[in-house]
Amino acid sequence: VTLDDIVASPLEAARPDAVNTELLRTGFSGFGGFLGRLKQMRDALADLADIGDAAATKGADRLVHQIDAIEPSITFIGQVKAGKTSLINAMLGWPGLLPADVNPWTSVVTSIHLAPAPDTVATGAHFRFFDREEWARLVEKGGRLGELASRAGAQEELEKVRRQVERMREKSQGRLGRRFEMLLGQDHRYSTFDRNLVERYVCLGDEFEDDDTAARFEAKGRFADITKSADLFIDHAEAPLPLCIRDTPGVNDTFLMREQITIGAIRDSRLCVLVLSAHQALSSVDMALIRLISNVKARDIIIFVNRIDELSDPASQIGEIRDSIRATLKRHKAPEDVLIHFGSAVWGLHALTGRVADLPAASRAALARMADNAARTVLETETELAWSLSGLPALCWAIAERIEDGAGREALDRVARGAANLARGVTATQAVVGPSAAMGRPLAVDIAALQAALKDIEARAGLALERTFEMQNAEFATRLDRAHRSFLNRATGALIDHLEKHGERAVWSYEPTGLRMLFRSTCQLFASRVQADARAIFAATAEETAAAYGRAFALSDGVAIEAPEPPRISPPVAIAQTIALDIKGTWWRRWWLRRRGYRAFAIEFYQMIMAETSPMLDQLQQDHALRVRDDLRQTLNGFFQEQWEFVLGLAEKPDLSSADLGNALGLEERSARLRRIESTVAMIRQDAA
Ligand SMILES: Nc1nc2c(ncn2[C@@H]2O[C@H](COP(=O)(O)OP(=O)(O)OP(=O)(O)O)[C@@H](O)[C@H]2O)c(=O)[nH]1
Ligand SMILES: [Mg+2]
Question: pTM for the full model?
Answer without folding.
Answer: 0.85
